[in-house]
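Reopening: structure tokens for the fe (ii) ion complex, inputs below.
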Amino acid sequence: MASVLNATKRYMRPPPQYAHDWFSPLRSVDVIAGQITKFTFMGNELVAFRDASGKVVVLDAHCPHFGAHRGVGGRIEDGCLRCPFHGLHFDGEGQCVKGDFVSDPRSLRHIKSQPWTVHEVASSIFIWHGVDRARPARPLRFIEPDFFAGWSTPVTNAGRPLAPTNIFFPTENIIDIQHFYAVHNWTVNSIEQHPAEAPDGSFRAIMHMTFRGGAQSPYALVRRLGKAYTSAFDFNIAVLGPGMALSRAKLGPDQGDLELMSIILITPTNLTDCHIRVVSSVKQRFEGRLAKLARRVLGVSPEDILARVFLAIATKDFDGDEMIWTNRRHLQNPKPLPDDGPIVAYRKWCERFWPPDYLPDLHAGQAVADPPEYSLPASAS
Ligand code: FES
Ligand SMILES: [Fe+2]
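Re-run output (same inputs, fresh job):
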């Protein structure tokens, strides 16, 4: 084992918090037409708003004119972001197009905030974080046509903070077979596909598990009662990146053969902390009079209701993980066991998400500072 675990390998060193990939720091409901949403993402202070067409726009919070925070006192006018300091207006491309007190708009051409690349899908807002914010190095899987065809409308909730947590800890758990017993009290009945890189580039595993209700509860009574609710399920899980994992769970016939999709989203908020959120969807299978009646009377389908139930269960199921992640330390020379899962292969796979200029020894787990976001025009210096 010692020869496999060569601590001089870069991928075994402390990983960066500010990895390069797609991340989802916001839900769709967090960005309301006519309002500005301030948020922190990868240590950057950002603002989000909807332009005149309703498209989500994400810009650096600080104005390229003289650095005012456009989320503090700024407002949205005609789908443009108006800075409170000198009244300059920025459109959906981040271009300054108008100034309340500017006579010739042509003088504004050099004032632009380079927008972040954004996709809104699955009730969530995804942002590309990479070398070039305008050119994602990888596609976002969820925008593939028909990705959600046959599934209920994806639902999400506010999620939960993980402070402190390294961005790579949550996804590393997915290949960490033993933790499913120890932390979640799930039983791994068999492994159909051991965790490994799949042809689509994800890191994937297929396992047959048994879930027991209330297994993580601190109360003995809840744990005892929970034993009455056990459910076998097929668990197909793929890590797409440090901030995204996609799971498909198929329950047994006693649970109605339900199929559940969960997207697990992890986002660094700063150098030490993360946030985790789940998106849930249920395969549409209820037809007939009762289902139609529910849709008509309640405005939601049985699948919508089940998706919300599974979302609550999945969010709660991070209780044990949170305890481990927020107190864990990254070891560059851990002592794995054959039963752990392919931790070394996984860390090697993860290295593709490291910023190319990240120096693990120098930064010791910290992020490389982002390059300057914009420079002042020559006339302003
Ligand atoms: S600092 Fe924003 S308009 Fe001047
Ligand atoms: Fe876990």
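The first strand starts at residue 21 and ends at 27. The helical segments are 168-172, 177-182, 220-226, 288-298, 302-316, 319-325, 343-350, 360-363. Marking as resolved unless the reporter disagrees.
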